[in-house]
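User: Hey, my collaborator sent me this sequence without any context and asked if I could get a structure. I don't really work with proteins. Can you help?
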Amino acid sequence: MSTISRRTFIAASAMLGLSPWEAALSAELGPKPLPLAQPVKLTLGILKVAHLAPLAYLPAELKTMNVEVETAEFVRYADARTALASGSVDLAAVGPPDLSILLSQGVTSTVVLLGVGTQPKHLLVRSGVKIDKWSDLSGKKVAIAPGSTVWFQFAAMLEEVGVPYSSLNPVNIQGGGNNFHLALKSGDADVAILWEPFESQAVMEGFAYFAKQLDYSKSKAVGGDLGVLMANTAAINNKREAVKRLIWAYVKTQQDVASSKGRFAQAIAQYTGISAELSQRVADIIKLKPDLELDQMKRQAAAFHKFGVIKKDVSGELDKYYPADFVATSLRGV
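Assistant: No problem. I've predicted the 3D structure and written it out in structure-token form, which is a compact way to encode the shape of the chain:
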């Protein structure tokens, strides 16, 4: 099957009322691609977080197609983004706003391929501290990772509900989720803007609780997407067939993992090393999905420019950095 042109693909998508992003992912996964004639190695930037658990099975799936995967582990999306932009890795799992951040910095060497998942993001509150409404955050010590995806979600929600960020007492936390736990346990933080599995672990161990009525994944500007899979354009140009197989394999492993909560929990435990009980809690919260929300990403870009996080509004440029036809043919297995 020949690769359809981007213009034809966009026109057909419009007739169906779909964006190119939605149309590329609307069809069922095609047959498994044939193995490459010669082995090709791809470097992949990863984080050991629950919503990326399908990556545990990706190298084995790709090996059957003669694609070797070398992983580089990062603690923060920001570090993975830097490695991707520099070409140190071919592909990486990064945050939903990272494409906009790179474009605002004049970096045009990356494209976004797939989504990873969504989840509700309830405030994580230290046990003994009462938070019932957004305005209760005023004066509270809020542990944050500045510039992180969850921080963007939280800051956008505060803007929408009319709570000034300046009314908080932000506590900047460096490193992984365990440092947030230490801040909550010591009383250095009243609230943590965190990610899984560290959120559920804090609740399971009893030193924090979810304020279920306060969900900052519902902001119109940022939404609840947890991440995206992006590629350096050099990898697509020079290792095109290998990248196509990675796209197919990632969606395949994601579908397999998402087939049941038990399967997802098992994958989380294998990928992150956390307990079976904690993995099951996390699996009940996160929804895996490969589709991307272009309109949501555009709202993010515009909002981040408004907030002063990025210097340039790049919301009108995002369409150019999603190779819709490439993703579509990859998913069809051709």
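In plain terms: The chain is about 40% helix and 15% strand. You can pass these tokens on to your collaborator as they are.
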